[in-house]
């Protein structure tokens, strides 16, 4: 069975991406990060999703990005709320974590080398998203080129590393539909950037707004409730 490292945040997109990889026959090694995010509830969600979808192993790495700050997710900066689609597409929001996906993919690449896995799956999306520069196809393509220059397998020509992003050109509604088709248990996922002390979604952050939009447009009830 082909092995793959799958980045898993515990949110909607990464859960559907993991289910997609499993459907395509990959033995999946799920990788999550405790990076000092204010929404650490997603790590418990990631554990449940990995178990539900039959990941071969689920690893949580601690990489404390609070040391750098610079983001509403890792610093004492307010999370934006109630933004319109136009506002979300106007620029890079303060919830962007500097170099986060570059860091995550680099660590996924290291694990893939050890596992002799030629594929890394990532649930980034460049349609219904918050304008993060490290979710764009150009970034993914550039990282893949770098990965094949920087690894022993790439240099020796024994393995061509692929960064697979099956959701990157899908709307959030299409992702919800695909997840339903793949049997994803949406009730296990968490997406809110600023949940309360009990883990309940705020319903107003960009991630909540986009998730709600996706479920509404797909005509599917979100089992988590008012947001996520």
**Parts with pLDDT < 50 across at least 5 consecutive residues:** none
Based on CA atoms alone, the radius of gyration comes out at 17 Å
Helix content: 25-40%
Quantity of strands, as a count = 5
Under the CATH scheme, which architecture would be assigned? 3-Layer(aba) Sandwich
Overall geometry: globular
Order of helices and strands: EHEHEHHEHHEHH
Our count of helices gives 8
**Order of adjacent strands in the largest pleated sheet:** 3-2-1-4-5
> Structural class of the helices, strands and pairings?
alpha/beta
In CATH, the homologous superfamily goes by the name HUPs
Could you name the CATH class?
Alpha Beta
The CATH topology is given as Rossmann fold
Strand content: 5-15%
Taken together, the total number of domains comes to 1
């Amino acid at each position: 069975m082909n092995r793959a490292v799958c980045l898993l945040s515990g949110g909607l997109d990464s859960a559907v991406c993991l289910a997609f990889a499993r459907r395509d026959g990959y033995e999946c090694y799920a990788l999550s990060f405790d990076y000092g995010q204010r929404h650490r509830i997603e790590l418990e969600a990631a554990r449940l999703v990995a178990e539900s979808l039959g990941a071969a192993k689920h690893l949580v790495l601690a990489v404390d990005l609070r040391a750098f700050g610079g983001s509403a997710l890792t610093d004492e900066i307010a999370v934006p709320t109630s933004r319109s689609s136009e506002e979300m597409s106007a620029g890079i929001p303060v919830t962007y974590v500097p170099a986060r996906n570059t860091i995550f993919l680099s660590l996924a690449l290291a694990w893939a080398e050890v596992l002799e896995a030629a594929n890394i799956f990532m649930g980034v999306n460049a349609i219904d998203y918050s304008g993060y520069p490290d979710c764009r196809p150009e970034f993914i393509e550039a990282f893949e080129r770098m990965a094949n220059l920087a690894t022993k397998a790439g240099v020796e020509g024994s393995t061509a590393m692929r960064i697979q992003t099956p959701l990157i050109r899908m709307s959030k509604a299409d992702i919800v539909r695909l997840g339903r088709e793949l049997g994803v248990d949406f009730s296990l996922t968490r997406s809110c950037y600023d949940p309360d002390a009990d883990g309940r979604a705020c319903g107003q952050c960009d991630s909540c707004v986009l998730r709600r939009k996706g479920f509404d447009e797909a005509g599917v009830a979100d089992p988590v409730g008012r947001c996520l």
